[in-house]
Predict the 3D structure of the following.
Amino acid sequence: MANVLTICGSLRKKSYNAALVRALPALVPDGMVLTAAPRVDTMPHYNHDDQEATGFPLSVNAFADAIRGADGVIIVSPEYNWTIPGTLKNAIDWVSRMKDQPFKDKPVALQSASGALLGGSRMQYHLRQCLTSIDALIFGRPEVIVTFAPQKFDAETLELKDQATRDMIKLQLAGFAKFIERVRAK
Amino acid sequence: MADKLNVITIAGSLRKGSFNAALARQLPKWAPEGMAITQAPPWGDIPTYNADDQNSTGFPASVTRFADAIRAADGVIIVSPEYNYGVPGGLKNAVDWVSRVKDQPFKDKPVAIQSVAGGPLGGGRVQYQWRQICVFLEALAFLRPEVFVGMAASKFDEKTLEFKDEAGINFIKQQLAGFEKFIRKVTGKA
């Protein structure tokens, strides 16, 4: 049994990445339950002075608690300007300063979708670099990099239709379940 | 006498006592004669990027102001801390907004990068992330000399935040002099 939190890096309604998150419950292995994290746009821009003066905002605490309470985290994010969306990074910047830092020793898997041929992979490797700094346990392969998104999602419903992509996601989620099981503190 | 170049600094940290903001404020002291350095408008009040908001209400005034300042400058110097081995989310969000603006202000804009950090690498990891972002933006990222200020606490005055490190100041002077030449070469500005 694994409770897994999904974090979405895009805020717009018709986001392919948000659609990807919605596709996941049908593809999880037995025993994996997904919950959506609070939205990342609930947090102010990180400012150490604010942290010192008024502490961590409630929105940051809620986000951190959700991560702490999960057995694993899946970050599903677009690539903005060849790297991590600022808003998602800002959320990570906030929780990284917390005592009992929530990503420490937390299994994390990554997924991304984009309209073009690299599928957000440049963002994923930057995210791996940043997650290294906060001691997350980053899942290796298979990677989920959804290229040419408009061909793979239904234009109206945004349902993920591409069978090869669905199969790859199933493989990743099954592997991630095993990874969580393996690294979980006994 | 050539025209003075108008260069703006963008500091990546919002805290008052930031070493990066302190360095950005002090750069005019070390600018070559042909370069005037001023600070970009603040980006702290730019909301989180959401394409739905952009489509429904357009670009916020804070974004337009930031973009206009970049567009009007002959060059930009980003002085950025490293957060979690990467770019600070707050400033990245500002860049995400301006990257969507028509007549995208970073296109063909000369950009130099500096970073200050408490550790020994001085923000090395964040600078290469900025360079990758510059590729997308079609900014003209200045190459060398690079300015990495490591072990920051030992190099700034504790009270005034004056940057006192002689070797660091020399690197900065060399970078700014090189950046002036680079700007004149790539923009054709006399």
Observations:
- The mean pLDDT of chain A is 97.
- Helices of chain A lie at 16-23, 48-54, 58-68, 86-95, 121-133, 163-183.
- Strands of chain A lie at 2-8, 32-36, 72-76, 107-113, 137-138, 144-146.
- Chain A touches chain B through 33 residues (CB under 8 Å).
